[in-house]
Design a protein that fits this description.
11 helices, 350 residues, 41% helix, 13 strands, two-stranded parallel sheet, single chain
């Protein structure tokens, strides 16, 4: 487990997956420094993590407001703490927005990460866990998705993840001291069991669950379901949903792996449940958990969306000793608990 002397830099640590992972890192005894530009998050989430971690552990958490594209911000953080590893979440992540604004995505995700690699090298911290995505599989020819499938992204967001994976591989090849784990997330949902932290996107959500949640609490009138004519049982697309606490534990497992395996190189792992659930099945499960009816509006498919994507999870089990523990019921239960306690997310309704 983490020792009090090991420090982890978490970029984008105020975000949805970041907050849950930071809490677990503190719980197992790491020191954590967050850098986040609060582009799609709020500082209140970090405050909640402190409260959940308790007085002793929250002493081990520091927050910097900063942007990875600004080298002065990175210099400030790296010059003040010696880091043992970096977990890199920071990045823009909306598929639709990336299609509309590719320049924004390439600028933010690529330049920010290149700067991060530069400062990690400069300060001798050559261990990284990188947030990749199942989008790197594109429209897979067969499922489940196995880590050594040929990669092809179908939108600019996915391409930023794909390019960054390639860059990571090149950096590690050039300097074998680097140890890099690429975690390909499937669809993170749910929230911490306390209902104190959860997903709180700004604007209209791009992902299914926060969208369902906003309909359930009355913030949005109906749920748009994109694609009702897919070649699936109920016509809706199939995805692999994973509880955010399982995902957080996957990061702990990846960090431990990096500390204990000198020759890991640059290695990719899927983090998913290995089971596909259709969009309409997810809606039904959420209705059951919340006791709310979710009005839906069937819309045409979105460009760049695949029919069915779910993970092969064998490598993560075999090499990281990790597997998802929670099912769709718990995901919906915890998501609703967060939503009903925080109908307007971290902000009180103004």
């Amino acid at each position: 487990m983490g020792s009090e002397t090991q420090s982890i830099l978490v970029t984008g640590g105020a975000g949805f997956i970041g907050t849950h992972t930071v809490l677990q890192l503190l719980n197992v005894g790491f020191k954590v420094v967050i850098i986040d530009n609060l582009d799609n998050s709020v500082e209140e989430s970090v405050q909640r993590v402190r409260e959940l971690a308790g007085t002793d552990r929250s002493r081990n958490l520091q927050f910097y407001l900063g942007d990875l594209r600004n080298k002065e911000d990175l210099e400030k953080v790296f010059s003040q703490t010696r880091f043992d590893a970096v977990i890199h979440f920071a990045g823009l992540k909306a598929v639709g927005e990336s299609v509309a604004k590719p320049g924004l995505y390439y600028n933010n995700n690529l330049i920010g990460t290149l700067n991060l690699f530069e400062f990690m090298g400069k300060y001798g911290c050559k261990k990284m866990v990188f947030s990749s995505s199942a989008t790197v599989y594109g429209q897979p020819e067969k499922i489940p998705c196995v880590e050594d499938f040929q990669l092809m992204a179908m939108n600019p967001y996915g391409r930023t993840k794909l390019f960054l994976e390639e860059i990571a591989r090149d950096i590690q090849k050039a300097d074998p001291d680097w140890r890099i784990v690429l975690l390909r997330y499937f669809n993170p949902v749910g929230a911490h069991i306390s209902g104190q932290i959860g997903e709180d996107p700004k604007g209209i959500p791009n992902n299914l669950m926060p969208y369902i949640q906003q309909v359930a609490v009355g913030r949005l009138p109906e749920l748009s379901v994109f694609g009702y004519d897919y070649p699936t049982e109920d016509g809706s697309a199939i995805r692999d949903y994973i509880h955010v606490m399982d995902l957080a534990d996957g990061h702990i497992a990846a960090v431990q792996k990096i500390f204990t395996t000198a020759d890991i190189g640059c290695r990719a792992y899927n983090l998913g449940t290995g089971k596909g659930t259709s969009v309409l099945e997810m809606v039904a499960a959420f209705e059951k958990a919340s006791g709310k009816k979710i009005p839906i509006k069937l819309c045409p498919r979105r460009p760049g969306d695949a029919t069915a994507v779910y993970a092969s999870t064998e490598r993560a089990l075999k090499e990281l000793g990790w597997k998802a523990r929670y099912g769709v019921e718990e995901m919906c239960r915890d998501q609703w608990n967060w939503a009903s306690k925080n109908p307007w997310g971290y902000q009180s309704q103004t």
